[in-house]
Every structure is written in C-alpha cells, then in structure tokens.
Write the structure tokens for this entry.
Amino acid sequence: TVGCVVVDAQGRCAAATSTGGLMNKMCGRIGDSPLIGAGTYACGLCGVSCTGEGEAIIRGTLARDVAAVMEYKGLGLQAAVDFVVKERLDEGKAGMIAVSRNGEVGCGFNTNGMFRGFATEDGFVEVGIW
Amino acid sequence: MVGWAIAVHGGAGVDPNLPHHRQEEAKQVLARCLNMGISALRSSLPAVDVVELVVRELESDPVFNSGRGSALTEKGTAEMEASIMDGVGRRCGAVSGVTTVKNPISLARLVMDKSPHSYLAFAGAEEFARLHGAEVVDNDYFITEDNKGMLKLAKEANTIMFDYRIPTVLSDTCGASVENPLQMNGLPISVYAPE
C-alpha cells in the first residue's frame, strides 16, 4: 500500500491511498484503502492515509478517528495519531501518516517498520523505515 | 497562510530481514516521490493535485505494493484499489477491483470529479475508465517476478500476507538449512531464523 497526505500553503488538506491489497487474497476482496474514513480521510483539520491489516483499519475507522479526536478531544495531530494507533486497533497491525492544516506532519505505527517520508516548508525532511 | 507539509508512505509491516540494498532502494523511491511533491507545492499546486501526482509516481514504481508491483490475488492476478479525498468540501472518490487501469488513483480522482458517485468498483470502474480515457494496460504490466515468488511462498505457507517483503533468496538471510515445519504468523519459522 502507498499513500500521500498534503497540506498546501493555503492550509488545504488532501489524502490519497492506493494498493494491490494482500498477497494471496481472495478475488473480490476489498480492503481499507478505498474506504473513505478507514484508509483515507481529509477534512478542514487534517489529511490521513493508513496501511496495514485492512480489516482492523476498517473496524477502527482509523483515518476518520484521527480527525474526530482532534475535533472533539482537542488533541494535536501527533497526539491524535498516537491515541488512535494505541486505542483503536485492538490486536490489529497498522500504520498511518497525517498532516494538519497548521502545516504539521504526524506518523504512527504498531508494526516493526513503515516505509515513510516527510517534508515541511521550514526545511524538515526525513525518510525512514524502522 | 501556513507552511506546506507533505508525508508519503510505502506500507507498514516490513520484513525484519529485508536486505540492506532493498532498504536503500525503497528509501530512494520515497525520497524521489517526496521531492516531486515538494516541487509541486513550491509551484503552488493545490493539495489534492499533489497527492494524486505523488501516488501516481508510487504506483508506477514496482518497489511498493500498488499499481506495478501490486500484491497478487490467489489466482495470480493484480486487483487494485485506491481512494482520494479533498479536505476542501470533503469531496472524495474511490475505486476497487480494477485490473487494467495503469494508475488507479487517477481513476479515483475521475470518480470524484466526473461522476455523481464517490465509489465505483470492478466492471463499472473499468467501464468508467474507458469512458473517460484513463490509460489502460494488460494485467501483466502490474505483475513482477518478485511478487510471483512471494505468492508462491504465501501459498506454500497457506497464508494471506500483509504489506510484506520477504527476501527472494531465503538462504542468504536465514541460517536454517533444515526446513523446520514450525510456523509463526502463518510463515515458515525459517523466515525468522536470524532473530
């Protein structure tokens, strides 16, 4: 699975996710990536893209929950990502990237690694795996 | 006015024995896609155009599980899905079960912009792609030798695997010479031998 989340200089957020799904999956199986609110979500507050065990991400409505805890619990972006990865996945394994309208980037995963890269206008750039 | 920001991912759940050269290869793809997004943002492209642009690039590179290099179904075919969402107005588009569309994310964008719906799947999505001139290719385009090998492994282990890259040459990463029938997470224990 691959994904990208962006907030532009006007504070507009967007998210996109694309995948081949799971190796050896049944034909016709649909995962979290195309489900708005599960694998992908964007609103006025943030943009989120998820990856990992699709069934766990769907049940946890993971991407929407980041926006929800920001909106209703007043959490910041990284705190919202950490909360959702910790509290919404049950036994599932997954990861996510996120941006906020304030120009922040966030990331969280409970797997052993996640292929990821970040950049912000003030010059921060990071590419990581573990 | 805020500063722009961008994040990309290539999947969670990484094989602990992923050879170093494969790790470097993955990092180079991520850095290249990140730089594409940064240039687009510096050119004041709207966020929704930037995420589509970057995911298209990730789909076109076989290193990650999407587009070319997609994980394979039990039948050895590629069946892809994608979604896109614009925070402005919370507009969205999604597709599933596409087998010939070169860039599924751009088809999802077309669903968002050119259809009255937010999600099209399988035959309907393929028909919509042709109606709107999305680039289509044979399913073979998406299938790589690596993934054929991984599908074989998954079938031998009788499991369904997540975004997982298992080294194609097990011998140079797993010391176990005798095949141990023990399984962990649905995979032969030999995959984890170094740990």
